[in-house]
Recover the amino acids of this structure.
């Protein structure tokens, strides 16, 4: 299907690099041209051509760069693209790509895409040819374009990498992933000061997202801020309800220490994330966790099936657990306020503490 086609991939980090390796393994294209804005990366990958040469004569251009690059990147490459070239992205928020491409509609085809795969690791050195195998890729074309050749082309590329394709309107996509991806990551950052109290190996999975890149995520949070603020408010409602129940429980004879209560607090934090997702089903008409990736699964790995059973387990330590939850809630609230205010500097400071 693509043996006479040139594919250009701009951005060779974990996602772009992994897709490149997967497609090279298939040998499906006449040429796969790579470009990265980082000079050290270009040197390591022996990329000697510039951005213009990368996209010239390319039939398909895939943008694997951070979403904040789109407003400057698209005007740079568009004058050098062949007529009717297909351009797609890989960002986890779709609105920035859609808005950046509006001036160029009619001359080229644009297919918003989001692979539901990743890692807390970054860079080409973390790339893996099997990263997308059996993972979902969400395609978000306009309804009139769903049956188009451009969409079929992008679908086929991701299927070559082993992915499963799902279609979703881009506004719905950004709401869904505010809940199942961006909220779990925000919760992980809010956990950061407390993570040293969870030393047992069984908490490694739960804490994996705390090692994610703050610089990468602050851009995602701000790009989808309205949806993330709403998701965080819904989640904090569950945390507040549980905290109040604990505070109203009769005092224990010998209060536990915060360090003893920290693992129990982590269980509550995970359970409230599950409860938040379940509360959405009547509104959405489907279970949003069907579209969740490994980050959501990791952050809910400590969740108990029954929240009442969990409350019974922590009743003897309720004051200490409530202290853990109050400290966590305060930090999460500060992060939410920074996002709502579009305050990048404050967010970076909070996320790097």
């Amino acid at each position: 299907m693509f043996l006479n086609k040139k594919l250009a991939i701009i951005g060779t980090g974990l996602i772009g690099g992994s897709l490149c390796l997967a497609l090279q393994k298939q040998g499906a294209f006449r040429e796969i041209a790579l470009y990265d804005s980082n000079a050290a990366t270009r040197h390591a990958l022996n990329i000697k051509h510039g951005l213009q040469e990368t996209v010239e004569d390319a039939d398909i251009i895939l943008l694997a760069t951070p979403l904040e690059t789109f407003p400057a990147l698209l005007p740079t490459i568009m004058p050098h693209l062949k007529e009717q070239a297909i351009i797609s992205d890989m960002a986890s928020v779709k609105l920035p790509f859609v808005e950046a491409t509006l001036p160029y509609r009619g001359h080229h085809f644009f297919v918003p895409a989001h692979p539901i795969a990743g890692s807390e690791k970054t860079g080409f050195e973390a790339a893996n040819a099997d990263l997308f195998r059996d993972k979902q890729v969400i395609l978000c074309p306009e309804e009139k374009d769903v049956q188009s050749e451009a969409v079929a082309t992008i679908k086929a590329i991701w299927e070559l990498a082993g992915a499963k394709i799902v279609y979703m309107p881009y506004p719905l996509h950004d709401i869904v992933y505010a809940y199942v991806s961006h909220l779990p990551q925000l919760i992980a950052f809010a956990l950061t000061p407390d993570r040293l109290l969870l030393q047992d190996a069984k908490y490694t999975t739960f804490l994996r997202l705390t090692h994610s890149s703050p610089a990468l995520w602050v851009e995602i949070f701000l790009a989808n801020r309205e949806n993330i603020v709403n998701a965080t408010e819904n989640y904090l409602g569950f945390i507040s309800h549980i905290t109040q129940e604990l505070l109203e429980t009769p005092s224990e004879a010998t209060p536990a220490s915060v360090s003893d209560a920290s693992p129990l607090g982590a269980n509550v934090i995970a359970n409230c994330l599950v409860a938040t997702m379940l509360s959405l089903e009547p509104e959405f008409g489907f279970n949003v966790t069907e579209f969740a990736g490994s980050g959501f699964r990791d952050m809910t790995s400590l969740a108990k099936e029954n929240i009442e059973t969990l409350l019974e387990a922590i009743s003897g330590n309720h004051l200490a657990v409530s202290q853990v939850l109050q400290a966590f809630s305060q930090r999460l609230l500060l992060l939410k306020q920074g996002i709502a205010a579009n305050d990048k500097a404050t967010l970076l400071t909070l996320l790097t503490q």
The chain is about 50% helix and 10% strand. The first strand starts at residue 6 and ends at 10.
